[in-house]
Design goal:
By secondary structure, this protein is of the alpha/beta class. The protein has 2 domains: 7-55, Orthogonal Bundle (Helicase, Ruva Protein, domain 3), CATH 1.10.8.420; 78-199, Dna Topoisomerase Vi A Subunit, Chain: A, domain 2, CATH 3.40.1360.10. The chain is 41% helix and 13% strand. The protein contains 8 helices and 7 strands; from the N terminus they run αααββαβαβαβαβαβ. It has helices spanning 7-16, 24-35, 39-55, 72-75, 90-99, 127-134, 149-162, 187-195, and strands at residues 57-58, 65-66, 80-87, 104-108, 140-143, 168-171, 198-199. The strands form 2 sheets. The protein has a 5-stranded mixed beta sheet. Strands 1-2 form a two-stranded antiparallel ribbon. Strand 1 and strand 2 form a beta hairpin. Helix 1 packs across helix 2 and helix 5 (90-99) packs across helix 8. It is elongated and about 65 Å long. It starts with 6 loop residues before the first helix and ends in a 5-residue tail after the last strand.
């Protein structure tokens, strides 16, 4: 059992260790690093995290993280608002934006359908996507979910929900390897997958 010379140190390490991918040893390194920093630098670090949690918003249209009610992408008149790229999370938006190959808008689901994890369609932002399509401005929905069993299941569910709308539903090309997460795919491959997208086929 780890012995700590200070209860304050112990509590700080315990809090850092709650972060994903951070073990006790890494947490200890991070806390000791902060202790070596100027007090003002640590205060700036702490305040930025507190402000993030208290003030960050989620776009009322696409559910992206934003400083305002509508994110910069949805508010940009130069984006193609007739095309929506459906992704699992915010990291996927950042990955696709880094390719500089896509000029449409996004819709963030907040996950994928995964019965094993207790995540069903009602837990995701699928209904708000359907409502966006019903408004009539959308011509194409690009399904850009990771090529996993859960991603494919979610693709199929969304396709069925949009079937009566008449909107074009496409899926990114399979340049992304099976079971790979979109956010970890290199920019060139991801960019080509967007550009070379194909119509969604239930037999894929």
């Amino acid at each position: 059992m780890q012995h700590y010379p200070s209860q304050l140190l112990e509590r700080a390490v315990e809090e850092f260790a709650k972060l994903p991918g951070i073990g006790t040893k890494t947490a200890m390194r991070l806390v000791l690093h902060l202790l070596r920093q100027d007090v003002k630098a640590v205060e700036a670090f702490g305040n930025s995290v507190i402000r993030l949690r208290q003030e960050v918003k989620f776009c009322r249209i696409c559910h992206n993280i934003s400083d305002t009610e509508t994110c910069d992408i949805c508010a940009n008149p130069r984006r193609d608002h007739s095309v929506i790229c459906v992704v699992e999370n915010i990291q996927d938006v950042m990955a696709i934006e880094n390719t500089q190959q896509y000029r449409g808008t996004y819709h963030i689901l907040g996950g994928v359908i995964s019965p094993m994890d207790g995540i069903g369609p009602s837990d995701l932002q699928i209904q708000s996507l359907v409502e966006r399509v019903r408004e009539g401005e959308v011509a194409e929905v690009i399904l850009a979910l990771s090529p996993t069993m859960e991603g494919d299941t979610t693709n199929f569910y969304i396709y069925r929900k949009l079937a009566e709308s008449g909107v074009k539903v496409s899926v990114i090309a399979r340049g992304v390897a099976q079971n790979d997460e979109l956010q970890y795919t290199d920019e060139v491959t991801l960019g080509r997958s967007i550009v070379n997208r194909t119509l969604f086929n239930i037999n894929m």
